[in-house]
Design a protein that fits this description.
15% strand; 117 residues; two-stranded parallel ribbon; alpha/beta
Length: 117
C-alpha cells in the first residue's frame, strides 16, 4: 500500500525542540506518548486506513516502552498484537532498534487489559 500524509505518522514532527534549537533524541514517558497520540490523531488514522507507516527519525537514541504504550494503547487494544503488527509498518531511518521497547509496550497493554477484563 502506498503511504502518504493521511496514513503516515512521522515522529520527526513530534520531537521536542529546545529554546536553544536543540532537538530531543529520545521519546520518553506516558505523558509524551499521550500528547503524540492526540496530536497525531493516530486512532482516527487507524480507522480510516488499511495500513499505517510509522517513521522513526534519524539520530534517535531511545524510545522507551511507556512512550509507545501510551501512543498505541487504543489501537493495540482494538486490533490485538497480530493485526496491529500487520497494519502498522515501522521505518527506522537511523536504524534505531525499536522492536524491544515496542514489544514490551504491546505486552504491557495486553497484560493490563487481560488483568482488568
Amino acid at each position: 500500500m502506498k503511504h502518504n500524509k493521511e496514513n503516515t505518522l512521522d515522529l520527526e514532527d513530534y520531537r521536542v525542540k529546545g529554546k536553544d534549537g536543540t532537538i530531543a533524541k529520545v521519546f520518553t514517558g506516558r505523558d509524551r506518548g499521550k500528547d503524540v497520540r492526540l496530536a497525531s490523531k493516530i486512532d482516527e488514522m487507524e480507522e480510516k486506513n488499511e495500513s499505517i507507516l510509522v517513521i522513526i527519525p534519524d539520530n534517535i537514541y531511545s524510545i522507551n516502552p511507556s512512550f509507545f504504550e501510551e501512543l498505541f494503547v487504543n489501537v493495540v487494544l482494538k486490533l490485538g498484537r497480530e493485526k496491529f503488527r500487520e497494519k502498522f509498518e515501522f521505518n527506522s531511518l537511523g536504524k534505531y532498534n525499536y522492536e524491544r521497547p515496542l514489544n514490551e509496550a504491546i505486552n504491557r497493554i495486553l497484560r493490563k487489559n487481560t488483568a482488568i477484563g
